[in-house]
Each structure stands twice: as structure tokens, then as C-alpha cells.
Specification:
Elements: H1 2-18, H2 21-43, H3 47-56, H4 61-83, H5 90-94
């Protein structure tokens, strides 16, 4: 029983250190960036975008914004996950 409690306490310590609000928001932004980029890449193969690309040499405005937005959100989310502020250790929070 004590071993289970010890593992639970250490897992809680790791969870509180790794998952603070900024990192969780970074993960959400990273996922949204990947989704927007996938939507933009998929819509770039549509008939309307192929016709637009044939005559004007560029994709439609909506597709371009999906791709640019996806890249921007992905990079921002990645930066927030990589360099997000570190939470105080669980033992330091007990006193405050």
C-alpha cells in the first residue's frame, strides 16, 4: 500500500512540474496549428484552388490563411511547450 502511495506522490510531483497552464495552452495551440495546416493543405488540392492556381499563380485567400495560420499557431504552440514557465514543485506549494 505504501509503494502505491509513493508512486502516486511522485507522479503528482512530475505532473505538477510538467503541466502548468502555459504548457497546456501550448499543446492546444500546437494541435490547432496542425489541424489548420492540414485543412489548408487539403483545400489546396480542391478544384477551386487548382483553377485559381492555374490562372493567377496562387491559391485562394482562404487556403493561404489556413496555411499561414496553421504554421504560426504550430510554431507558437511549440515555443510555449518548449519554453513554458516552470511550475513550482509540489512540496514548495504546501507552505504557501
Amino acid at each position: 500500500m505504501i509503494e502505491y502511495l509513493r508512486v502516486f506522490v511522485h507522479a503528482g510531483f512530475f505532473w505538477s512540474w510538467f503541466m502548468n497552464t502555459q504548457r497546456m495552452l501550448g499543446i492546444v495551440l500546437l494541435i490547432l496549428g496542425i489541424v489548420f495546416l492540414a485543412i489548408g493543405m487539403k483545400s489546396s488540392n480542391s478544384v477551386a484552388d487548382q483553377v485559381s492556381n492555374t490562372f493567377s499563380g496562387r491559391f485562394t485567400e482562404r487556403t493561404t490563411w489556413y496555411i499561414i495560420g496553421g504554421i504560426a499557431l504550430g510554431l507558437l504552440g511549440l515555443a510555449m511547450v518548449a519554453f513554458g514557465g516552470r511550475a513550482k514543485p509540489l512540496l514548495a506549494r504546501r507552505g504557501s
